């Protein structure tokens, strides 16, 4: 589908950075709607990428995966600070905030999927369609990746919010070995688990073969 030459690789990284920034800002606004101003007070409700870039997650990891010709390119930004103790309803607030970033990414993918389907008919130059496809791809990947229940990904926060107290040992275990599990997943499990989801979602949204 994509020939990842130098220019398209740079474009992918730029789209990835802005997509993870939007993901984190969505968390911050969801926290504010639920009564927590921590992200706002920390100056994180901004689309300025400098406030959000994580050296490893936003730059080094995607670059490594590009060099390795990984079919799935992943990344993240610095998590926005959130204090669940400020939520009006802690459980509901945690769920809303945790899912806000994923909803933002899937929302972007849907909007640009429509652009991919109808943009040329509406006068968009075909030369711009490659960027549109990449925006869809990046945001579908981020949406599914963040649903994986490994800390600090959003899926883990949803899992922990819904997990009965008697299964607290699962949360303890995952938090203790989170980084090791996450890196192992990125390099050894992500393609196997995420690639089919990403492939068929991309085709569904854009109507273009993957």
TrEMBL record:
The chain crosses the membrane at residues 6-26, 55-77, 97-120, 132-153, 173-194. It holds the Pfam family Peptidase_M50. It is found in: Cell membrane. Its main location: membrane. InterPro entries: Metallopeptidase_M50B, Peptidase_M50, Rip2-like. One of its GO terms (molecular function) is metallopeptidase activity. It is a multi-pass membrane protein. Residues 131-182 form the Peptidase M50 domain. The keyword Protease applies. Keywords: Cell membrane, Hydrolase, Membrane, Metal-binding, Metalloprotease, Protease, Transmembrane, Transmembrane helix, Zinc. GO terms for biological process: proteolysis. GO terms for cellular component: plasma membrane. It comes from the Bacteria. The keyword Transmembrane applies. Belongs to the peptidase M50B family. This is Peptidase M50 domain-containing protein. It comes from Candidatus Nomurabacteria bacterium RIFCSPHIGHO2_02_FULL_38_15.
